[in-house]
Amino acid sequence: ISDVKIIGKTGVEIESLIAVTISALTIYDMCKAVDKEMTISDIMLLEKKGGKSGTFKRNG
User: Fold this and answer.
1) At 57, phi and psi to the nearest 5?
2) Is residue 58, in this structure, part of any structural domain at all?
3) Which end of the chain is more exposed for a tag (fewer CB within 10 A), N or C?
4) For residue 34, what are the domain limits?
5) Does residue 5 form part of some domain?
6) CA–CA distance from 33 to each of 20, 23, 28 (Å)?
7) Would you say residue 20 lies in a domain?
8) What is the pLDDT of residues 1-44, one digit of tens each?
9) Alpha-carbon 43 to chain mean position
């Protein structure tokens, strides 16, 4: 999970998703010798507050 907070007018959703993806790839790189068939999945935005499009919270 990446938690990003800013004071500004533009969102940081993409930066947060990139942080999570890079973390997952780092774990993959460390574990690939054990299991090359690992899968990285379910990277998604869970919640967003503010900005032009308002609040978003993923159901489930």
Assistant:
1) -140, 120
2) no
3) C
4) 1-50
5) yes
6) 21, 17, 9
7) yes
8) 778 777 776 678 888 899 999 999 999 999 999 998 999 999 99
9) 6
